[in-house]
Amino acid sequence: MNGPTHQFAGAIAALAITQIDAEDKSTTLHHPAAAIPIGAFLGRLPDMIEPSQDNAEKLLQVLLLLCGAAYLSHLASDALTRKSLPLLGKL
């Protein structure tokens, strides 16, 4: 796979996440207009950081990056809720 394919996969993954979480979350990061460009950028980011020779390695990098980004966006969303994050308290 090449850079544009990774970029497209990141955009589609972000769109899918916004549609799955659409009813539960209402933050601006969960809106498709914000999530698709972010997902496209994150899908292309591993190619920009360190171009790899192996397709399996590229796929693993993209998957790990998307999982990390999804986890961080989930933490950011939770930090803005009424209960917030237990370790940080209310922001």
What is the overall silhouette? elongated
Q: Give the helix tally.
A: 3
Structural domain tally? 1
Strand content: under 5%
Can you write the helix and strand succession as a string?
HHH
Helix content: 55-70%
Poorly predicted tracts of residues: none
Give average pLDDT, whole number. 75
- Cα(first) to Cα(last) distance is 41 Å
User: Whole-number radius of gyration?
Assistant: 15 Å
Coarse structural class = mainly alpha
Oligomer: single chain
Total E-strand runs: 0
Largest sheet: none
Description of the structure:
The chain is mostly helical and 91 residues long. It has one domain (3-79). Helices cover 68% and strands 0% of the residues. It has three helices and no strands. The chain has helices at 3-21, 32-49, 55-79. Helix 1 packs antiparallel against helix 2 and helix 2 (32-49) crosses helix 3 (55-79). The longest helix has 25 residues, at 55-79. 19% of the residues are buried.
Provide the descriptors you would attach to this structure in a database record.
91 residues; 3 helices; mainly alpha
Which helices and strands occur, and which strands form pairs?
Elements lengths: L2 H19 L10 H18 L5 H25 L12
Task: Give a quick summary of the entry.
The protein is built from three helices and no strands. It starts with a helix and ends in a 12-residue tail after the last helix. With 91 residues, it is mainly alpha-helical.
